[in-house]
Amino acid sequence: MEIRAEGVTFPSDGDVLRGHLCLPAEPGPHPAVVVIQEIWGLNDHIRDVAGRFAGEGYVALAPDMYSREGGAPSQDLEELRRFVGGIPDRRFVQDLRAAVAYLRGRTEARGERIGAIGFCIGGAWALLLACHEPIQACADFYGRIRYPELSDAKPRHPIDYVPSLACPLLGIFAGDDPMIPVPWVRDIEEALRAHGKSAEVHVYPEAPHAFFNDQRDSYRPEAARDAWAKTLAFFGRHLKGA
């Protein structure tokens, strides 16, 4: 399917944020997805994922979550962790809610059929968005379940927000991921069950963190293909339904 792609801006709490918008070539309105970056920032991989969604008939917006800082300050992982750790989760939630509001204002998008998908730290942000904004579906790809420590910027672990989750959740995790050990995945599964949430969680036993990213050494094609198929089926049920 042919798509259209463009850089866009949208307001959030007095600032102007940047994003990468991908649209199906066919006239809409279409269901929409917010595509949330890994810790590395809004890069070619995330733009490509947004394009894949547009090719499947979704309006896809990938916001630059570091817009206020002018983009990622570095590609050094430890520096990025300190950088992200100093930004309040409430700001990330605010900016993602602004992204949802922007999509609701696009005539090409179905405002009542919006989902979110996030990768790496973006997976945790997708979960937080779904706990603060009435979207229709959320996919979390190996997002943080617990932070190394809490702070004023991160006053609660992502798992602690599960009681507020208000839409179906797809959880995709890696079995060989020291940052998100499988026992933590089982903990969030139990929390989802305990609070009566609609959720499906999948763990790929041999896969490492970021196995979906085909531009990094962590890429595992077979697991990535299966996870993408599950994602399309999940969003198809919850966003493309009548």
Could you state the oligomeric state of the chains shown?
single chain
The helix-strand sequence is EEEHEHHEHEEHEH
> Helix fraction?
25-40%
Helix/strand/pairing category: alpha/beta
Structure description:
With 242 residues, the protein is α/β, with parallel strands linked by helices. It has one domain: Alpha/Beta hydrolase fold, catalytic domain (Rossmann fold, 3-Layer(aba) Sandwich), CATH 3.40.50. Helix content is 33%, strand content 27%. The chain has an eight-stranded mixed beta sheet with strand order 1-2-4-3-5-6-7-8, sandwiched between helices. Strand 1 and strand 2 form a beta hairpin. The mean pLDDT is 97.
Q: Secondary-structure map with pairings?
A:
Blueprint: E1 3-12, E2 15-24, E3 30-36, H1 44-55, E4 59-63, H2 77-85, H3 89-104, E5 109-119, H4 121-130, E6 137-141, E7 169-176, H5 182-194, E8 199-208, H6 221-239
Parallel strand pairs: 3-4, 3-5, 5-6, 6-7, 7-8
Antiparallel strand pairs: 1-2, 2-4
Helix pairs in contact: 3-4
What is the compact description of this entry?
The protein has 242 residues and is of the alpha/beta class. It has helices spanning 44-55, 77-85, 89-104, 121-130, 182-194, 221-239, and strands at residues 3-12, 15-24, 30-36, 59-63, 109-119, 137-141, 169-176, 199-208. The chain has a single domain, classed as Rossmann fold (3-Layer(aba) Sandwich), CATH 3.40.50.
